[in-house]
Design brief:
This protein has 612 residues and is mainly beta. It contains two helices and 45 strands. A hairpin with a 5-residue loop joins strand 10 and strand 11. The longest helix has 16 residues. The two termini are 14 Å apart.
Amino acid sequence: PINEHIMLARRALALLLLPLAAASEYDLCKRPVSVWAGFDQGKGISQPHAVTYHDTNIYIAGYAMGNLSFHTAHSNGNYIDHAGASATADTHADVTTHSATGSSEGSVYETDRTSQHGMDAIIYKVTLEGKPVKVFGVDIVPADEIFNESSTNGIMGGFAEFYGIDAFDQPDMVVAAGLYRGKLTYPTAAGSETLINEKDGGYSRVSTAPHLLWGGANGFVIKVDMASGEAVWATDDGLLTEDVSNRYYLRNVATTADGDVLATADERLKDQSTVGKLVKFDGEDGSKQWSVTYASVTAMYGLDGDADEETVYVLGEFKGEDIDPFGTGAKLTSKKGGAVIAALDVRGSEGPVGKWAIQCDKGDGNSVKAVGAHLYVTGELSGPTTLGDCSLTGEAGGYLAKLNKADGTCVWAKDVPSGRGATAVSDGASVWAFYSDDKKSKYGEQIIYPKAHSSDVFAAKYSAEDGAGLWATSIGGTGKDRFADAAITPAGPVLAAYAQSEEISFGGVSITNLQHARAAAERGGEVGSDWGPNRGGETAAFSLLISKTDELPPCLSSCPSGSLSAADTTVTAGMCYAHTECLDEGSASAYVPCFECKPAADGHGSQGLSGP
């Protein structure tokens, strides 16, 4: 009801304007600024699932259907695509194709194509400066190249997408891992090679991206030289099952200090239950070294390798009483299911050796990242629990924790909001945490809204020393914008997401998704709600590089205390600052549209929103 929304908005505004005697969490005056923001502007669909950084390059992995053309807008006013830099942004008519996946021109991906709707699992190489350099793609078709229900893969045909990526300690050498069904063809120095999965998808209906169905999926891992755009090796050994009722959900991939490769997966069995798997491959030739199934582990989401030794850190979910999920000697109990973080020595030829394990009961495990001597772990949380010596209430819906990687002891843990794809990255001094949701989130006393009540990426920054919250905000536009993954770079965190918004503005940089203008031109008018399989806007890959250095928002003329809510913080005359945005007098808030900017007469203390 409208009245209920007004009451909630009033409460949010009251919390926002509450005078504080001392600086509270998430109240830092300095706020995030963007280095650049980028969209895939090619005609089609693209969705990233993973991102990594190494040696001045960013590698974004996922899948695409159509024409790829990544463009970035920069804080210095530059606009860059694969053809070079410009001082003006392109229009949809200016976009040139960087790489085509095989879709026919004019397709909206609703009928079968001789290249499975043009689908490729792809890796996009982008420099730290935001210049797109190269696209690597693996093509997918039905195993028998029959594009109807008589195919061995059934009416669903084939599909392929990458879900994890990591870099070797060599220039331009990466490893990616994902799911596939059908005939997967990848380029090599000698030409091309294939992997085959003949299982039936098990469905009687056609489904088009981005609503792919994973029936009959196997996992695969591929090492790629991104300088040449050629695969070194690819394998599905240890990640396939001949039983059509079973499938593999490959979750993540990581390299080790010695250059080997580890992959995590969940195998779904006939009874719909899942068991966790860890598989090791030789980094030079891709040969499987060993494969281990963890019967008490139901999901294996988080994985990261140690930069200095042959150890990996896994984050999964388990259920049971007095069990030792990873063979570390620690007996754990979670009657209803909880998260478990473990360190595993992977040097041996027979399998991993458990070093330590720690549980977070009532929690889900989403992400674990190794940075220096510590791990940063995040996930969702449904109730009060402990993480080693740290206590959590569960009231915020999620957790963020810093652990000593040597023994798993908890340095600090805090209750934080959480949601789809929750991930935290760190440079050792600060921690940035991301996830996506279509509902408001409460960070301490700050309430953060998604724009237009649609899915946005939520972001927050913390002190790595003690976990103190510095700021929180949301990133998005008027459409559904969903977070996928993040990585740390020397400049700051880079995130990968997929978006349907027409424009996204964040931290002083704005970029337009040209899919909307292109569709409107082709249809001779405005884009309707029935446009394309996504109903409202093609899903396009989106990436954002956030500076590690925060700055005062342009509408704050002074902030001597460093605290946004302090009485001596001054807002520029004729402007307001509220809900992480600067507004001119009379302008409506993008987050609570029923409120508009009415600046305080003296510019002090009040942030100036007024409404019903």
